[in-house]
Amino acid sequence: MSPESPAAKVMTIGVLASRIAYGAALLVSPEKVAGNRWLGPDARRSAARVPLRGVGVREVALHGIALARFLRGSPIRPFLAASIAGDLGDIGAAALDRDGLPDGSAPATAVVAGGSLLLTALVAALNNE
Question: Rounded to two decimals, what is the model's pTM?
Answer without folding.
Answer: 0.90
